[in-house]
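Note to self: keep these together.
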Amino acid sequence: MEYVVGIDGGGTKTKLTMCTFNSGVINVIEEAVAGPSNVLASGVDVASESLVQVIKEGVLDRGYKLSDCRAVCMGIASGSWHSVQDAIAKIMKNDIGYDGKLIVTNDAETALMAGTGGKEGILLIAGTGSICYGVNSTGKSCRIGGWGHIFDDEGSAYYIAIKILNAVMKAYDGRDMATVLTKLVLEYFKVDNERDIVDEIYKPNISKQHIADLAKLIEVAYDLDDPIAIMIVDDVVNSLYISVESAMKKLSFLKKPVDVVIDGSVIVKNQAINLKFSNKLKQRHTLTNIKTLEKDASYGAAIIACRSIK
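Structure:
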């Protein structure tokens, strides 16, 4: 039986979706999950281990042959970079034994494909990182943001966490007003004073994900009407709105109906940010249809794999 495979290679997990295809109808038949496979964040060895595991558990252990796989599409952060594509190709060939059709692309493209079913639209991801990606009916695509946490990822959980830490230390110095966030951050790290926060942040084992986890405190402080938290939320909403509007301009969506698919903990789970962003976008661009991503990016990758063999 012939099939295709879609893979979402994330920084925390790898999701595989295996599908059959017949007369344009795509049917999901198997799924599997393994560890991280983001080559840049986790390294080639970890990515290889995860991909080997997810192919083994999702395909080989269930009795399917790699020789019957017509195409594999993998969406991964920085998947448009040749170095990442080459690394994944080597893993698939040397470590897994797959030498068939392989497409490696950005995970935003696969997520958008899952959200729109292949139609034109815009995807906004605001989770640990952030990115906005869109495609119009002519095939023109654009990417806004998502250039990494060191100098971009505006509106992401990491971005919020840095804003929180900055506000706490400014309040400690007397450079800005006091904020409820100070108490919340001290409790989060289980420390007694602000100087101890610095020691916690600069521990060797603290990762981007660890810092980004602080972002969940913003909703608590916002619900307590903390002025600093309100300013941070408004800044995040504005950053995310600008990303989407920039994509709309580039893709000529300003005067036509368009789906804006949202995904990620910041934009989906934070009620204040979700509501303020949605209201701002709908007020200024009434033809937009905002919807939450329902099918994951591995399904979108499977769609791309199917289309590649037609």
